[in-house]
Amino acid sequence: MEIKVIVGDIAEIEADAIMVNHFEGMESLEGDIADIDRALDGAISRLIAQGEIKGKPNEITIIHSLGKLPSARVAIVGLGKQKELSQDKVRGAVAGACRLLRQKGVGGIATVAQGAGMAGISAEGAAQAAAEGALLGLYSFRKHITKEAEHGDIKQLTIVAADKTESPRLERGCNKGKVLAEATNLARDMVNEPANYMTPGDMAGMAAELAESYGLKLKVLERKQMQELGMGALLGVAEGSRQPPKFIILRYRGGDSAEADMVLAGKGVTFDSGGISIKPSRKMGEMKGDMAGGAAVMAAMSAIAQIKPRVNVTALIPATENLPSGSALKPGDIVTAINGKTIEIISTDAEGRLILADALGYAEKLGAKVIIDVATLTGACQVALGDVVTGAFGNNQGLVDKVIAAGDEAGELIWQMPMYDQYKEQNKSDVADIKNVGGRYAGAITAAQFLAEFVGDTPWVHLDIAGTSMSEKEKTYLVKGATGVPVRTLVNLVLALAK
After folding, report:
1. DSSP symbols for 201-231
2. Is 251 a catalytic residue?
3. Superfamily classification of domain 2-163
4. Is 89 one of the annotated active-site residues of the chain?
């Protein structure tokens, strides 16, 4: 979809539909919506008086102009109470309106900068939210569906600036929103792919495409190189699969030095059967999405390379399948990670922390100043926080606060979980340095404590996206399937740390 900014009067724009907003509790119409109401002979005012238009969040009312305006339809988008407005509510409202208009066969939409100048939302922020909302809300994954879609695509979104002085700010916001949303949709595409189309080799191939498109440096470690580095935890997980593991390294250099200012590590289990500790068959097909952390990290790098912050960022993605076979890792086995720590395997279904152990150890060897890892790590985190909030665990409160703030800006909610030393007791092994499962209770925390063993004193945050990586239904700018969480959070964080 093309997104552009023009200068003009929304009431005079010719499009399949124009989009204006209304706030809950507003007694009179002002500005653009008032002008359009007059052109429609008071149709909007009458619907408000009749209670059909209330301005509640995500309420959408479509009125046909019947030739009274250059545009065929007017969509009145509810933004809720003005004092409670946020960029995320704008994203959601625009997404919902775009989806409804697509169902009506609309091909082109023009909109005002929804929410600009209200509740602290700048013109740039409003344009960014509109671009993100439209692109995220209209996303669909139809690669393997041969039947044509019931409705055509919306091909153009035009954001209308009131004057030339406002136009540059809207264009900056529009461009940033487009980059962030397209990166998020890239992650969605990767996670939605079936596992036979997104193998470790396919992930490495995608990394190569991103490197070529955006000027990133790529290195892919093969099994022999992993053996030389002592990545016994990752290689142990890979033993059960015929698909060779890949350790993907993507580098963006925006800083003056060659140092790894920031490392983003993402879990890349392209299919997780549980291994010998096999999962129940119900919903096992969803385990194609166990590489959502790796996909998010790779997609974030594509956005970072386009925005070009003055900071060096390295992405590490250990990619493998976790399958049962005669050569697979077994409960009771002991493996040795890249930092020399020995790990007793209690469950082969706790594989994500094993491959991340080697990734985090590798980040330490790079001399990373900051490490963020992203993983669909534990069902325990999903039990604790559901599908609304990502769990955050860390060893540096300042960094945790910045991650949460970056998530708030993106509308990707994050909740800090405890990391008290007492939880470490559950991970103690009688036969190795550590075991990979700490028992039934506090499973998300003990998994995070396991990862903490491989980062040393480096400031580090672990994001458990087990609950937030997928959505079971359509809501605001999320659609059913992969969400792309936390691509936009990661980009926001990198931009904040680059300042």
Report:
1. HHHHHHHHHHHHHHT-EEEEE-HHHHHHHT-
2. no
3. Leucine Aminopeptidase, subunit E, domain 1 (3.40.220.10)
4. no
